[in-house]
Specification:
The structure holds 2 protein chains of 2 kinds. Chain A is α+β, with helices and mostly antiparallel strands. Chain A folds into 3 domains: 2-276, Sandwich (Immunoglobulin-like); 294-535, Neutral Protease, domain 2, CATH 1.10.390.10; 540-555 and 565-654, Immunoglobulins (Immunoglobulin-like, Sandwich). Helices cover 23% and strands 32% of the residues of chain A. Chain A is built from 13 helices and 33 strands. In chain A, the strands form 8 sheets. In chain A, strands 1, 2, 3, 5, 6, 9, 15, 17 and 18 form a 9-stranded mixed beta sheet that branches. A 5-stranded mixed beta sheet of chain A has the order 20-21-22-24-23, covered by helices on one side. Helix content of chain B is 77%, strand content 0%. Chain B has one domain (3-42, 60-315). Chain B has helices at 3-15, 18-47, 52-58, 62-71, 87-98, 104-130, 135-181, 187-221, 227-240, 242-266, 274-308, 327-334. The longest helix of chain B is centred in the middle third of the chain and has 47 residues, at 135-181. The chains are: A alpha+beta, B mainly alpha. Chains A and B meet through β25, β26, α8, β33 and α13 of A and α2, α3, α4, α5 and α6 of B.
Chain lengths: 677, 341
Amino acid sequence: MFGRFAALVALVMVGDAALSGTPQTPAAQTAANQQAASVPRSPRNANYAITARLDPGSRTITGDEILTWRNTTNTAASTLRFHLYYNAWRNSDSTWLRGRALTGRPANEPRRSDWGWIDVTTIRIIGTGTAAGDLTKRMRFIAPDDGNEADRTVMEVPLDRAVGPGETLNVQIAWSSRVPRPFARTGAISNYYFLGQWFPKIGVLENSGWNCHQFHATTEFFADFGTYDVRLTVPRGWIVGATGTERDRRDEADGTTTHHYYEEDVHDFAWTASPDFVERRARFEHSTLPPVEMRLLLQKDHVGQADRHFEAARAALKYYGEWFGPYPYGHLTIVDPAWQSNTDGMEYPTLITAGTSWLLPNHTEDPEDVTVHEAGHQFWYGIVATNEFEDAWMDEGINTYATARVMEERFTPTYMARRYFGGFVPWLFRDFPRIRELDGDRLTSYRTGAKGDVQSTASWRYWPASAGSITYDKTALWMHTLERMLGWETLQRILSTYFTRFAFKHPKPKDFFDVASEVSGRDLTWFFDEVYRSSDVFDYGVDMLQSERQTFEGFGDKPAAGEAPRTELRPTQYRTTVVVRRHGEGIFPVDVRAVFENKEEQRWHWDGKDRWKMFVVDKSVRAAYAQVDPEHVLLLDVRFSNNSMTLAPKAGRAARKWSLAWLIWLQDYLLTSGFFV
Amino acid sequence: MSPRAAFREGLHRVNGAPALLAGTFAVTLVVSLPLAYALQGMIAAHLGSSLAADTAASGTNLEWWREFLSQANGLGTTFVPTMTGFGAVLDNLSGFLDLSRPAATIIGVTVAWMVLWSFLTGGIIDRLARAKRTRSQGFFAACGLHVWRLLRLGVAALIAYGILFRYVHGWIFDDAYGALTRDVTLESTAFAIRVAGYAIFGMLLILCNVIFDYARIRIIVEDRRSAIGALLAGGRFVGRHPAQVLGLYALNALAFLLLVILYAGLVPGAPRSGLSMWLTLGLGELYIFGRHYLKLLFYASQTVFFQGALAHAAYTAAPVPVWPDSPAAEMIGNADPAGQP
């Protein structure tokens, strides 16, 4: 309660500033006596002072927040809109659960105790001005995306007086919530709590109005930057991790402890609490990047994997820092989530969840890949704060691309692994090292949903079952294609320019495209038309390869009367004909190459527009093979095996070898089934 | 007779029946080959004249493989990278215990193989029980004599195993395991619960298995016609000698475990090219041969133990193969002397 009291004292001092032109920040004022606010990196127009009490017995949170919100648009706001994400799991009629059912991965049938919700008990404007007052009775739920009346994930509150551009409003909200068993990303299982999207959070006001989407199963979040001054009361002895750093800690008389966390220039706040965490600390140091204190909250099973987590986080901070820009916060908390908690692989400002397994050989994909990815989100999501509801590819896709690049730089080789016997016992297949294009850029999963949606469609409208393919996989593949097309140095400059220019802002797709064209010095509109504004798939192939000895038969220029047709060898002995074809709808300029038996090669460039193109060359040697896109620049090509054709095919040998290997599997299968006879 | 003695004698009998071992290995190979040939055609067609075949032939080409899988259906979906090397064994054992469903084509060939094996079981156990050559006519006479009894027993086995896998497995691994691990947050704890589940299910499976094994042996060794009677007798036999029966089972299981560990240690993984490819494939077939050996060893040692428990040790009932005469001889034999010209 101290925090709430302090915030209220601060607000009394603010007086009539409930609606004023001067930004007032109760949260910052609360902390003013402890630390002078640093120079803002962000607009800081949504600032929260929150006190919350977790009661594990009833699995509830009671909270109180004071939001200081400033209208940074050129439009007056006559209403306020808030996200109440926990209501996504209030009942099966929520938009989230309806969407989840379409993903092909429906959630387990929830038990009575699994549901979660959030109820705002009071909401009022604080201050002594005319705008002050209790708005609780005006609260209403709206469904701007799908009109689902049963969905309660967006709350709207009409105001007596509109908040004009540049004006600031102080809002106090009290709420109580039931923490769900994790359906996805947030919730509690046993005494492990991971709490994201847990408090009433204001939407983002844009010049065009509120950008406050309902919670959808396939999309994430969007919020404005601000300061978070949060006091969390949990049972004594529990370990807490949260966005920001812990300022102080106080034991309460009722056997609880209040942890005070504070962070500036972030757009969300998440936390975790459990008595079972094992805590480890390490530090990231670099000659040109700011140091970062790393805190790892591990499950007991994974104590031996602390170094793997730290190394992965270090790699992300190092490479992302060198490539894009420095990580400015100075601290990062990594949470190793509880088994089956469904909270792995999540990003929040300065707090991430990783994900690993108990039995884990070396050289596996995780926990490194997931840790790099989530730590990488500090850059693409945390700092460059794009709208995950509408343009999820801008953080997830770019970050997937960057993750794969880091993994290739730092953690090669990793191998394919499969887990047997209930998913517990791992086996590493060392013959199959992970390949960046296949596994990092996720070509394999892209193929399954390549035509699912046009990427420029708002992400929350994507078909749920293929949203991942379009958001993560397609972007990573076209980013990597761009790298091969422009060169890494150019792409790195594009990304670092984009990062620097839009740090602590909310860029749109056009911002990225403009930077790409500007920095590369090439108009890349055609490229983004193909990959972003279209759902066309790419598939180029060699349709025909002939290389035959040439002879001349027939008559010359002026056949004499009675002259017989001549047959003679041409000076060049072999005519090589290569026909390449565009099987897909996507268009991309490609190189075509013919390689001859003496290793000599002939190259052509094709704009890739026609359905097919023939190339002919006369040489003194026979062709050995031909390729279209020989350097594999176009990583979105869904069938690369048809990109080449050889005159000495080895398909028979390969097929014999692999079918014989498969034969052993089948015989073993029969003998295993032979248990019954 | 002690389990060790039965096991030793079982080894002796299997070693004394090389044709039987070679024959059963050949049967499995022959049943499997058509599907492998079909898959070979699918792979060759997909690779076509692509350069991808070069790397697939000389090593592994995961990029092509994933592309193949993305377009595969039916049989092709079983051609996955994890079936290479020791992965094949893990894949099948884990799939067996966790009840994963294979492609319909694989189910079809498995059913065919099991019916064929049921037919051969009469001859196999008869041969192992006699511990002497029966030649092909004796072998197939025993097969023919016992096949319908064994198939009737197979129906009973189908029901019993069906109940085990359909209901008991579901109860243990879905209901009980799900309930016990619902609030578990440590994977090691969940794994311990899973292992306990495997132990319980495994014991039930083994119990069921030995009863059917001894019922099968009883049908053949004692020439019993009633499958139900043999099943009850098998149950009584196991009930009377539980320690020895399970001890012998454990010895056989241990032999299987040793073979699997040996294979895991030796198999290099995915085949490459040239000599190393043939060595890898040869080692795989040697392992399959070893599994046939152990399958026969199971039969042989259990048969020895069963025979050892009878009043007349090493007793084996008929059949003595009596072949019908040729049609011509039969006609002469049946001819009425009075009617002769």
